[in-house]
Structures are given as structure tokens and as C-alpha cells.
Amino acid sequence: MLKTLSRNNILTGLVWEISGAESQDIGYSRWMSNIRRSHRVYVYSLKDTDGTSELTGYSSKTTPGCESFAVHLRNLYGDGAYYFSTGNNEVYLLMVMDGVIISGSDCVVTEAFFEKFSQSLPDSRYSRLQLIEVTPGQIDVVVESCKASQLVYRKKQRLFWTMVGGGIFILLLASAIFLYSIIAG
């Protein structure tokens, strides 16, 4: 399933910034400072019943037009501890609680870690999250949602470059007319 996501320019493994990170320890602050410098930032504005909020994620992949799997899964299905097997004794894990993507959870972990996590989930501070296995059908819904967003991105990009080209053409035309009027006298 990760290959399907990758083929469709859908990102996984983002480092999500913790809201209220100013109160974190100095080690976390330094680490996040390095992440901000070395990774591409993706900011998503979300409209909820409480108003508008932002999710900020960082990825080492710098391809423009990519979409975040975590954000689309959050928007489509809401809160939960989502997982699916990636093969090779690994599991993709994503946790969304109160509409916020839990930092450190948009990742691939070993099956042993996932088993311990799923056993300790009822006794943790994330106990109200349901453990939800992501099905291939849900992946397809996310892919279609991402393709729609990417189409909007490409249209905006095409409009921008058309406007730039039109501006350059008008500037060249005005320059040619000006030069002609100077030469013609």
C-alpha cells in the first residue's frame, strides 16, 4: 500500500509539529530547529467546528504538488489509531486525536512494537482512540481525494505560469513599440 501512495505523490512519514512546542525541552527545540532547516514544510489549514486551525508537517521529500496521507485520512475518517501492514514485519501507524495528528505517529514501525503499542493503548492517554485497520478501499478513497487536490494544484500552477508568460509578452510588446517609436523618430 505504501507503494500505491508513493506512486500517487502521497507523502507518509512527515514529522508533525507539536502545538505549544515552546514549552518543550531544549533537546526537542534543537531537533525541531534542525528539521525546519533541512526538510520541506507542509502547512494545512483545517476548518473545523471550532474555527480554522493549522497542521504543520515536515518531509525530507521536496517534490512540489505532494499531498499528505495523514491529513487526507484525518479529513475523511476522523480520529483513530490507523494502521496497515506494509510487509517485511512492518506496520504503518498513524494516530489522530481531537483532529490533531500525533507527532511521531506518521511512521512505519516493527510488528513487535505495534503489538506492544496495541496492548498498551487502553491504558494510555490515547485510550479513547479506536484501533482501525486501513483497508485497500480506504486507500483508494484517499488516493482519489489526493488526485482531486493535485488537479487543483496543477490548475493553479498552470494559471500562474500563463499569467507570467502573458506578462512577459506584454512587456516585450511594449518594449518593441517603445523602441520602434524612438527609432522612427
Fraction in beta strands = 25-35%
Taking all Cα atoms into account, the compactness measure Rg is 22 Å
Q: Between the first and last Cα atoms, what is the distance in angstroms?
A: 70 Å
Unreliable spans: none
- The total domain count is 1
N-to-C SSE string, H for helix and E for strand: HEEHEEEHEEEEHEH
What keyword list fits this structure?
three-stranded antiparallel β-sheet, single chain, 5 helices, alpha+beta, 185 residues
Explain what you see.
By secondary structure, the protein is α+β, with helices and mostly antiparallel strands. It has one domain (2-184). The protein contains five helices and ten strands. β3 and β4 form a beta hairpin. The chain is elongated. The termini are far apart. The model has no long low-confidence stretch (mean pLDDT 85).
Would you summarize the structure shown here?
47% of the residues lie in helices and 26% in strands. It is built from 5 helices and 10 strands, in the order αββαβββαββββαβα.
Secondary structure blueprint with pairings:
Blueprint: H1 2-7, E1 10-11, E2 15-16, H2 26-38, E3 40-48, E4 51-59, E5 67-68, H3 69-77, E6 80-87, E7 90-97, E8 100-101, E9 107-110, H4 111-120, E10 131-133, H5 136-184
Parallel strand pairs: 1-5, 6-10
Antiparallel strand pairs: 2-4, 3-4, 6-7, 7-8, 7-9
